[in-house]
Amino acid sequence: MPSFPNPFQGNIPRTMTKEELVQAIRLDIAGELEAIYLYDAHVHATTDEIAKKVIADIRDEEKAHVGELMALLRILDPKEAEFFAEGESEVKEMLEDLGIVEPKDISSDPVSPSTLTVGSLLNQ
Ligand SMILES: [Fe+2]
């Protein structure tokens, strides 16, 4: 959350090391996730359709920022990127074990009756 009383709080009197930059990017990602959470809560908490539309659009822009920062983090720390890939592979294996195809894999044929997705299972 912002801390407006001290406008110099985020200033660093020197150039960051690469390790510090990686840590800063992680903190930036956390900030984006917090913003998404708050905007989403505001979207759900109002009945004003204009506010819903504007705030939801801002929320979705924050999601894009997460993607940008994650891409930057992968570039700055390839070892960490390997851990991300390892986690993604583990989830893909779990989905395979459950016979679930990732949603993006069915986007070209969303009505295929032989395809199970998390969403389709929720509707059963
Ligand atoms: Fe953002």
Structure notes:
It is a single chain. With 124 residues, the chain is mainly α. The protein has one domain. It is built from four helices and no strands. It has helices at 18-45, 49-76, 78-98, 118-122. Helix 1 packs antiparallel against helix 2 (49-76) and helix 2 crosses helix 3. The radius of gyration is 19 Å and the shape is flat. Residues 32, 35, 62, 65 line the site of fe (ii) ion. The site of fe (ii) ion has 4 residues, from helix 1 and helix 2.
Short description:
With 124 residues, the chain is an all-alpha fold. It has 4 helices and no strands.
Highlighted features:
124 residues; mainly alpha; 4 helices; flat; binds fe (ii) ion
SSE blueprint and pairings:
Elements: H1 18-45, H2 49-76, H3 78-98, H4 118-122
The protein binds fe (ii) ion.
- The N- to C-terminal Cα distance equals 40 Å
Counting DSSP H or I runs of 4 or more residues, the number of helices is 4
Give the H and E element order: HHHH
Number of structurally distinct domains = 1
* Principal-axis shape: flat
Instruction: Note poorly predicted spans.
Output: 106-118
Report the biggest beta sheet as strand number plus sense, adding barrel if it closes.
Answer: none
